[in-house]
Amino acid sequence: MVTIKSQREIELMRIAGRIVALAHKAASEAIRPGLSTKELNEIIEKVIIENDAIPSFKNYNGFPAASCISINDQVVHGIPSATVMIKSGDIVSVDIGAMYKGYHGDSAWTYPVGEISASARKLLEGTEASLFKGLEQAKANNRLTDISHAIQKHAESLGFSVVREFVGHGLGKQLHEDPPIPNFGLPGRGILLRPGMTLAIEPMINLGRKEVRVLTDGWTTRTLDGSLSAHFEHSILITENGCEILTKV
Ligand code: MG
Ligand code: MG
C-alpha cells in the first residue's frame, strides 16, 4: 500500500533526509586515497548518531554497517572493511540511510577519488543526470513509470545500461515501502503520483552490460562483465508542482 504522509510525518522526513545529507557531506570531505571503507563508514555513522538518528541499514536483514560502500565494478551493498583501501582513480558509491523519530531518509552518491578516467567521469555525470531526468517526472498526476522511463531513456542514450535487479522504493516508517520503482520500462503505467507520497529514486547504471552478480558474502553486488557502475539516489516528496528533494542540505 502506498501511503500519503501527514504534515507531521513530512517534517520528520525532512529532518531524516537532512541528516543523511550531512553524513554525505562528511563522507565527501573525508574520502581520499588510503582511507579504508571501514573508516569512511565510521565517519558516516558518527554524523548520524550525533544528530540523534539511527543508521537505517545497520542490522537491516543482517547488514553489518551504517552505510554501503561499493567501489568501481561493485554496484551496491558493499560491506565496509578495514582491509579495503580507497585508491586514487576509484569511483566510490556510498549509500546512507538514517531514521529520525521513526522516519527514514535514504540517499546514495558515487564519488570520484583523485584523477578518474574519462569514461568513469562520463558514467558519473550521466548517472546523476539520469536521476534528475527521473525527478523531473516525479510530480502529481504523472504515473510512476514516467520516472522509470525517463531514467532508462537518458542512461541508454549515453550508451550505458540500467541494472534490473535493484529498484527504487517508497519510504517513510519503513526503509522500503510500496511502490517498487524500476529504473526502466514503458511510461504511463503504475500508480498515479499524489502530493504527500515519499519515494527514493535510485538509478544504478553500468558502463558495460546490465547483468550483475552477488558475491558469496551475500551482499556485495558486482557487474558481471567487470565494468564500472554508479549509483545516485535521493529521497523525495511529491508536491502539487513537482518534487521536493529531502536528502539535501
Ligand atoms: Mg539507498
Ligand atoms: Mg534506497
Word description of this protein:
- The protein is an alpha+beta fold and 249 residues long.
- It has one domain: Alpha-Beta Complex (Creatine Amidinohydrolase), CATH 3.90.230.
- It contains four helices and 15 strands.
- It has helices at residues 7-30, 37-50, 118-136, 144-157; strands spanning 54-55, 67-71, 74-76, 91-100, 103-112, 161-162, 168-170, 177-181, 198-201, 204-206, 212-214, 221-223, 229-231, 234-238, 243-245.
- The protein has a five-stranded antiparallel sheet with strand order 8-7-9-14-15.
- The chain is globular.
- Bound molecules: magnesium ion (MG) (2 copies).
- One magnesium ion (MG) is lined by residues 95, 97, 106, 108, 202, 233.
Features:
single chain, 249 residues, Creatine Amidinohydrolase, five-stranded antiparallel sheet, 4 helices, 15 strands, 26% strand, binds magnesium ion
Strand percentage lies at 25-35%
The separation of the N and C termini measures: 30 Å
Q: Let me know the number of strands.
A: 15
What's the average pLDDT?
Answer: 98
Could you name the CATH class?
A: Alpha Beta
Helical stretch count?
4
Return residue spans where pLDDT drops below 50 for at least 5 consecutive residues: none
What is the oligomer described by this structure? Answer: single chain
Strand order, biggest sheet?
8-7-9-14-15
